[in-house]
């Protein structure tokens, strides 16, 4: 029985993952002594990482002597300058609204799980006008280890009192898919072809929200 949908935010609800990927690549190149030797496959380790894990990957790729704390501050400053012009409403995948309405009508709980800081999550959801649709919002900043550690998903299942076999995750990154898989959820991957992302652990792959909605309706009707 379908009782819970768990959405990732970055790269699923809003099309920001690729923007983040481009920004992080540019940031690595600022500090790398040999940026031209880095391939897209090298950069793929950045996708879907939470803050501390991301800083470690940046340090590894750039071979910089900067501390993780300094990388944190420098990246935040770099991102603030680049993201001044980001309009989340333009990046919002609006077809999710029909899924949210369907979930409400059919008494299916909806949660959001993201590696982003809680305040940023709220800002994005409020900007897109969908915050009130979520029964639970969980940020990776509250965990010692975020995705791919399954703890963030396990907490959602526990707080909403849902058996794992009745939950579906909608993710796009390797780390997010791996976290949901380890927690035992069924997974629909939002297809991503612009950057190297391993989505092979997902149970299904969908090209857009309309296709995801169709899959969810089929799952519900097959009960």
UniProtKB/TrEMBL annotation:
Q: Which Gene Ontology BP annotations are present?
A: DNA repair
The record's annotation in NCBIfam families points to:
HAD-SF-IA-v1 (TIGR01549), HAD-SF-IA-v3 (TIGR01509)
- Which molecular-function annotations from GO does this UniProt entry contain? phosphoglycolate phosphatase activity
Domain of life, per lineage: Bacteria
| Matching InterPro entries | HAD-like_hydrolase_sf, HAD-like_sf, HAD-SF_hydro_IA, HAD_2, HAD_sf, PGP-like_dom2
One Pfam family recorded for the sequence? HAD_2
- Listed name of the protein: Haloacid dehalogenase
Q: Which GO terms describe its cellular component?
A: cytosol
